[in-house]
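Reply to dn_fold:

You asked what the input looked like. This is it:
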Amino acid sequence: MKHLLAEMSFLEFAEAIKGAPPLILIPLGSQEEQGPGAPMGDFMLTELLAGRIAAKTGSIAAPTIPFGHADYFRTMPGGIQLRATTFRALLRDVIDSFLDHGLDRLLVFNGHSGNAPLIDEVSRTLRAERRVIVPWVNIWRMIPPAVWQAAHGENAAKAQGHGADPMTSVYLHLLPGLVRGDLFQAPAPGGTMLGMPTAGLASGKLGGLEVNLPLAVTDHCANGIVSGDPRLASAEAGERFAEHIVATTSRLVEHLKTQSFTVQE
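and this is what came back:
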């Protein structure tokens, strides 16, 4: 049985959804800088992981949406950012395309954290308007401290962050030929805005007070490494991360197979 919707004919898909329809994964990613040594198309990782989960659980993975809402990366060339209105409309159109055929067993498999608040909005709107619950997960945020510790030992905290791990190690595991280890750099010092040191992509700090700011990544650093050190990445760590994401999401899929997605209230 095929598990990627993009590879199916419409007759094959029609056959696959007969009887008890399978759960359908909707993978989301982005095209954005990932530091100096890793590819920008992180949607490729989402696509590969979703395919593995679909094959393991007898589910179907829809084509990955390769662009996300990532305005803070707009100052880096090569990124493709969707406006919030565009992203919400695109995700809603994709989900409605399944719902219109009675396919409501959906799981959004989100590979870009910047999408999260917009997915939540769409999910809540779908509950109100179409009386269906669409669950979703952030794949890079589901890795627990124990897996980080197993992957990096005492360097776990130093390895973690945008421009470093978990993505750089997962790239080394799944797509090693695309990684430029010779371009890896140490994290750059943070910048300033309004006389305050920047703290990542969304805030500055004045003493112990965190102040929300409309930062771009280049306000914080020139090399795209928001935090973490990509020089600590390894294919072995990437394998641990990937296996955890696949196993954890697969358990969720198996659980969701037993549930009704229709709003009961």
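The domain at 5-143+242-256 is CATH 3.40.50.10310 (Rossmann fold).
Hope that clears it up.
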